[in-house]
């Protein structure tokens, strides 16, 4: 994802890539691992490279353990930060909100999914839940994904829970194999699939009297996330504080 972001920023006429940070590739020519069309940037091992290069916005696609420290550093040093890393805990988010309120020079933008189609899928699911409260989610990702269920699935459950008028039909089934019904949050069962060949996929299935409704989104390539990442980079400056969800910078008209 870091390589994809570098390529997308370099290809955008309104943006300039001024630094790249990855402790595992310190001192490596960026172009050698990201194919960034002849970039002369050398990867650094510490976020200080961002301020030295005059970066206004940092983008973090790492893992939760690293992202938390990266975000704190950016907020404390006046660098806006766009985050695609999932797995941050509620307590960590509360700490980041408190830090951001003190370090008002920089804003924080977090999205569980930067694919615009995925945001539409979540919004359509929210709308459907008003009329069809019974729902289950199947999310599918590559086996390298660290968290299960995905941040997108959790955010989808939250939207369904907020929108529906009842909790739906009681589940009377019993598990012959433990975990057969998946995880459960707010009465919505979530099933996580991790297989080679997958990128990021999610299906929300609603059931009603004599009918079902399926809403599905598929990211078949990581480039699907880049239009949303670029939009967040361009929109984060005027935002105030901590923003969670790409829908806040999209004119959904809903």
Could you describe the 3D structure shown?
The protein is an alpha/beta fold and 254 residues long. It has two domains: 2-110 and 223-249, NAD(P)-binding Rossmann-like Domain (Rossmann fold), CATH 3.40.50; 116-219, Dihydrodipicolinate Reductase, domain 2 (2-Layer Sandwich), CATH 3.30.360.10. It is built from eight helices and nine strands. The strands form two sheets. Strands 5-6-4-7-8 form a five-stranded mixed sheet, with helices on one face. A four-stranded parallel sheet has the order 1-2-3-9, sandwiched between helices.
Summarize the structure.
With about 250 residues, the chain is α/β, with parallel strands linked by helices.
Look at the helices and sheets and give the structural class.
Answer: alpha/beta
| Separate helix tally | 8
Our measurement of the CA-to-CA distance between the termini, rounded to an integer number of angstroms, reads 30 Å
Order of helices and strands: HHHEHEHEHEHEEEEHE
Mass-distribution shape: elongated
In terms of DSSP E residues, the strand content is 15-25%
Gyration radius (Cα, Å) is 20 Å
Oligomer: single chain
Number of domains: 2
CATH homologous superfamily placement of the largest domain: NAD(P)-binding Rossmann-like Domain
- Return the average pLDDT rounded to an integer: 92
Query: What is the strand tally?
Result: 9
The CATH topology of the largest domain corresponds to Rossmann fold
Question: Main sheet: which strands, in order across?
Answer: 5-6-4-7-8
CATH architecture grouping of the largest domain: 3-Layer(aba) Sandwich
Q: Spans with pLDDT under 50 lasting ≥5 residues?
A: none
CATH domain class of the largest domain: Alpha Beta
Largest beta-sheet details: 5 strands, mixed
Helix content: 25-40%
């Amino acid at each position: 994802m870091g390589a994809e972001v570098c390529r997308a920023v370099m290809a955008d006429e309104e943006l300039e890539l001024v630094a790249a940070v990855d402790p595992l590739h310190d001192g490596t020519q960026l172009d050698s691992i990201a194919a960034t069309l002849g970039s002369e940037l050398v990867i650094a091992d510490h976020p200080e490279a961002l301020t030295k290069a005059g970066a206004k916005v940092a983008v973090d696609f790492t893992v939760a353990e690293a992202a938390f420290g990266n975000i704190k550093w950016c907020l404390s040093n006046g660098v806006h930060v766009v985050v695609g890393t999932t797995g941050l805990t509620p307590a960590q988010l509360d700490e980041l909100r408190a830090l951001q309120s003190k370090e008002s020079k920089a804003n924080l933008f977090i999205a569980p999914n930067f694919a615009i189609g995925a945001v539409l899928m979540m919004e359509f699911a929210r709308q459907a839940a008003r009329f069809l409260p019974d729902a289950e989610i199947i999310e599918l990702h590559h086996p390298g994904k660290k968290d299960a269920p995905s941040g997108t699935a959790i955010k989808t459950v939250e939207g369904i829970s907020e929108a529906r008028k009842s909790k739906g039909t009681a589940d009377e089934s019993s598990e012959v194999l433990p975990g057969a019904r998946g995880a459960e949050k707010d009465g919505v069962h979530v099933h996580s699939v991790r297989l080679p060949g997958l990128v990021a996929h999610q299906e929300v299935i609603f059931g009603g009297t004599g009918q079902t409704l399926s809403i599905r989104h598929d990211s078949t390539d990581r480039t699907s996330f880049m239009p949303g990442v670029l939009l967040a980079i361009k929109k984060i400056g005027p935002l105030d504080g901590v923003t969670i969800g790409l829908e806040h910078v999209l004119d959904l008209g809903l």
